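so my prof wants the structure for this chain in the tokens format not the other one, which i didnt know existed until like an hour ago. anyway here's the sequence
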Amino acid sequence: MTWVELHSESERLAIEAQLALNARAVSRATELYKRAAELEQKALDQLDVSKTRTRGITAVSAVALWFKAGDLIVDKVQTIQSMFYRTIEFVSGVSHRRVGRPTKELQEACRPWLFQSAPGSYQFSVAIQKPAQLDFFKQDIEPERIARHFLEIVSASSGDNAVELERLVPDENYRSTFLKLARNLSPTGKTFDRIEFRASGEAHPVTLSVESRGCINQQLRKKSTICSTADEVREELRGILRAVHLDKDWLYILVDGVPKQIFGLQEAVDDVIGPMVNRSVIVQAVRVAQNKLRFVDIELAE
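here's what i got, hopefully its the right format
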């Protein structure tokens, strides 16, 4: 096979791997990334040594694919990718999406690339591959701008300056989703205490810390307090999220071995809550009847 054929097949497998990872089929994603890396390495071997630039690009691609095959920090990578796609949709004027994945057209046109600074670290370089479909964006939007906007949103979400986030993201539904995704990224301090992002070529990273999680929760709780009535009694439940059904408007959480069903998921979106299934969570709810709880908020407890 020629370089073009090997490289094209590698790209196809990498796209399949990404879609598998988005669907949380981790073992399949890892295998597909491995096969893509093998083909990219074979493509590198096909190139003449005089083609310095192409060899360099192909080598970087092969290393990145091997890296993804062997050392994925899966939960964080999925959340970062969700924020990237949300940023692309927001900047492109797409209506806020509550359920489902981004369109296949968007996923294939604009792939986010995430590189860990060191294996196992929580330091990421972020970039957007240029659209395969040159007319995908109807506006003059460059991948570099998407990456910058992503970092600006993460930075504004992590601080206590709600005005800046409102300026960047005027749409309330998008703003709430970005806050919750940023909270999912923020450390609790149990496994790690900070996560860093930087755009390619940027010297100064955007950092999320344990304190960032606290700031994000303050912003979200201000909003939920405004929406509450004076006589509502809040309850906090800690347990394992066992199931969620956004269309039927409920979730199940296992608290000390006892299942609790909570209704009224409101604006909850699946790429925020979906990765929490079978994980330790903290659910804020309101008891509206003796045996009925209404959903307010959910976050990872790990």
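also thought this was worth mentioning. The two ends are 47 Å apart (CA to CA).
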